[in-house]
Amino acid sequence: MDIFDKQAPMGTEAYGSAGDMKKTQYMLQLLGTPWDTNTLKCIIAAAEQGMEMHSGYLDVLNDEQNKEPYRSIFEFGTYPGLKEADYNVAGATGILAFINARGLGYSLAPKNVTEAATQDFWVDIAVTEATPYLNVLIQEKIIQPMVDSTYSVSNKAIDKARSDLASILNALENQLTGNQYIIGNYTFADVHWTAIIHLLILTDNSDLVEQRPQINRWYTSLATRKSNSGQSIISFSLLPTIQDIKNKKISSVIINDF
Amino acid sequence: MGIFSFFSRKKDKGTLEIELLGISGHIATLKCLILAKIKGLSLRTTLASYDVGVDQINSYQYLDSSKIVPTIKHDGYTFSGTAAILTYLDVRGKGTSLTPRKARILGQQNYWVDICYQVLGPVTQAITTGNASNDDKNLLNKILTSLNNLLAENEYIVGPMTFADPHVAAYYYALNCSGIDMIQYPKISEWIKRLENDMGGPLNIEYLLMEPT
């Protein structure tokens, strides 16, 4: 039994556990944290692509990613980590691509080269520019108060992060104008930005979203959007609440309608 | 001239040359140049002047409020950032796509791309700016040892040539130019030779010159 089986067990109800053949034979296990954008992206992608995935909490607050047994699987301690039978991969970039290729829905990566490059540009902005500012807000509003009840938030840091995020969100607002999803069709760009906007709202910054009607319209529409694979699961419904985060609870992706 | 002459001599696909705006010694720019060579694409490269430090961690950087490097222009399209540019060059260039078809190899390719950004980039930034601590040097040795072991089994980073190769190669060039001795990682050196053979020759050293930070 490895760290995945301990912390993200498949259980006896998992499909395929009784040896019966299901629509897909692949069973995934994920280790991550509910306040991590990369973990949320993996959950969204698994739901969108109809991949059952059992999730467990990786205790990064106690540096579990840099200790055994996690380190013996992922030598650089990158997370989230994914297991599929005898295969392991860490990091959202690898996990998203793996789930996309394994999954049941059409690819989340556009086939058209200019659309694919545009998608990658918006993913890049999410990762390179928006996430570092969001992480400041997550640290100040969620993590530090969680680990230290006497922690006094830095309003200066919060104000700066919000201010820096504003211009990035303005660009996203412009991009969404005239597009149902970020580049037109639903792609990886939407997966990345869904995680970011969701955590932005959970850190008491919903005003940044509500002030921007296109982002608000796009984000609201995700709450009723059925999966990319045609199954009834709604990826948005698996995103954590603030209470889930405090309880260190991460949703598993359970597929019932094969 | 160096890199300009090399990249301007090939004109074999389409009539429009791809314009690349980059900066010297910039890993994100190097990744674009390496992939263009692998894919046999002609680039008209302009090195921007700048007075900010080189960002060796992220996939792009701002030179001012509106100018991003690397950026390509081609056929009416403009794309910025390594991810978008590599995607575009891969399809526009010769041969089959570097994107693996098998899910597990695809996952491993992207795992190493992630390691580049999360681990190798910050260490390379510290090395190239002369600010590396012993921990940085130990971590670099660990990464290079891991790659060396991987390349003892694989012809390229994850087996077949993928996007992981131009990504990792860019750090190799930057580290090599910063005086990191690669002799203790023979499989990496052999891999670079294979890659340069696929590229039709090594990157011109003039292009790698580090600007003041």
Can you describe this structure in just a few lines?
The complex is a heterodimer of chains A (258) and B (213). Chain A is α+β, with helices and mostly antiparallel strands and 258 residues long.
Question: Could you characterize the architecture of this molecule?
Answer:
The complex is a heterodimer of chains A (258) and B (213). In chain A, helix 2 (37-48) links the parallel strand 1 and strand 2. Chain A folds into 2 domains: 3-105 and 228-246, Glutaredoxin (3-Layer(aba) Sandwich), CATH 3.40.30; 113-222, Glutathione S-transferase Yfyf (Class Pi), Chain A, domain 2. The model of chain A has no long low-confidence stretch (mean pLDDT 93). Chain A has helices spanning 3-7, 37-48, 70-73, 92-102, 113-147, 155-176, 188-202, 206-210, 213-222, 242-246, and strands at residues 28-32, 53-57, 81-84, 87-90. Chain A has a 4-stranded mixed sheet. The longest helix of chain A is centred in the middle third of the chain and has 35 residues, at 113-147. Helices cover 48% and strands 7% of the residues of chain A. By secondary structure, chain A is of the alpha+beta class. In chain B, strand 5 and strand 6 form a beta hairpin. Chain B folds into 2 domains: 3-96, Glutaredoxin; 103-199, Glutathione S-transferase Yfyf (Class Pi), Chain A, domain 2 (Up-down Bundle). Chain B contains 7 helices and 6 strands, in the order H-E-H-E-E-E-E-E-H-H-H-H-H. With 213 residues, chain B is α+β, with helices and mostly antiparallel strands. In chain B, helix 2 runs parallel beside helix 3 (82-92), helix 2 packs across helix 7 and helix 4 runs parallel beside helix 6 (164-177). The interface between A and B is medium-sized, with 29 and 34 residues.
